[in-house]
Design brief:
CATH class: Mainly Beta
Number of strands: 8
GO molecular function, one term: carbohydrate binding
Number of helices: 1
Organism: Favella ehrenbergii
CATH architecture: Distorted Sandwich
Number of domains: 1
Protein name: Glucose-6-phosphate 1-epimerase
Helix content: under 10%
Radius of gyration: 16 Å
Distance between the termini: 38 Å
GO cellular component, one term: cytoplasm
Pfam family, one: Aldose_epim
Largest sheet: 4 strands, antiparallel
CATH topology: Beta-galactosidase, Chain A, domain 5
Length: 131
């Protein structure tokens, strides 16, 4: 019913990851996304979109289009979260795909992307440290 965040699967944290000026992890994980496209075949692909509403503007008055694409390949699942500024003023945001997957070892996990120049919080360290 949207009253509480879902703790399972891959919640979408946007426009804020973690604590901050608006609710923890933002609003995207609590809202219904609209199916933009669905492709069957050898590598099925689903594209979902989220755009501003009265609810989002009540917390974060920005013009945006968030797109979440899921592609199922023979040996992998590809999840891509993109954000486009559709307004005339710049904005900052943080985001995350907050997965709840059980894996046999962290050494079996692989994250790919263009992270050059990005900072991150490594929670595998004790205490956690920004890198």
């Amino acid at each position: 019913d949207g009253s509480k965040p879902i703790s399972g699967g891959i919640p979408h944290c946007f426009p804020q990851f973690g604590p901050g000026e608006i609710q923890q992890h933002g609003f995207a994980r609590n809202l219904p996304w609209v199916v933009d496209s669905l492709a069957d075949g050898v590598e099925p692909k689903l594209v979902l979109k989220l755009t501003p509403s009265d609810y989002t503007k009540g917390m974060w008055d920005k013009e945006f289009e968030a797109t979440y694409t899921v592609t199922l390949k023979e040996d992998s699942l590809i999840c891509d979260l993109g954000v486009k500024n559709t307004g005339s003023s710049a904005f900052d945001f943080t985001t995350a795909l907050h997965t709840y997957w059980s894996i046999s070892s962290i050494k079996n996990a692989k994250i790919t992307g263009d992270f050059q120049g990005a900072t991150f919080l490594n929670k595998m360290l004790d205490p956690p440290a920004e890198q």
